[in-house]
Amino acid sequence: MKYCSSCRKLCSGAEAVCADCNKGYNEINDINEPVLICVVGGVDRSVACGALNDANIPFVEKQYGKIGVSNEIVTGYDAKLLNIAIEVPYSAVPKAYEALASVGVECKVDDDILEQTKADIEEYKLKLKNDDIQMSDKKRTAVRVLSAIAFIVLVALVIWGTDYVMELIKNLFGG
């Protein structure tokens, strides 16, 4: 799956640049990469944030698009509160989509992107499970023991090194 590094919008197609901001797409390498789920304002913003909070989905609100004093003068509304982008971790997109759809908030995620996201998450979970399987309990214990021994050796070297340097300083100044 690809996303726009500027506006964080997801893209499943072969487009080279984002249709919203004309920036290039990047591949999602981290399952916790924040991506755009919806753009809301006013009451919809409160409803969307409430739905995400109720579903225990972490999210971030950011200003979306340009703001200006003229918008505020013409509309009478605080322009900073109008277009708020809500971003969620990539791994939470399906759950966030369901939570927002249940309260009637329109998402910036279409069905193709949603299906691809679900497939990516399942693939990631399978990869994690396979990584856990590859390391047996004996191997994991051995790694922990060796790490503890390496830490103890490192602490001992620091202490002995400090003693050696202090002895040199004492001898240098006739102590």
Tell me about the largest β-sheet: 3 strands, antiparallel
Number of domains: 2
For the biggest β-sheet, the strand order reads 2-1-3
Under CATH, the topology of the largest domain is which? Alpha-Beta Plaits
Quaternary state reads: single chain
Q: Calculate the terminal CA-CA distance, rounded to whole Å.
A: 67 Å
Helix content: 40-55%
Brief synopsis:
This protein folds into 2 domains: 34-134, Alpha-Beta Plaits; 136-175.
Task: Spell out the blueprint of helices and strands.
Blueprint: E1 2-4, E2 10-11, E3 25-27, E4 34-40, H1 42-54, E5 60-63, H2 69-75, E6 84-89, H3 93-102, H4 111-134, H5 137-172
Antiparallel strand pairs: 1-2, 1-3, 4-6, 5-6
Helix pairs in contact: 1-3
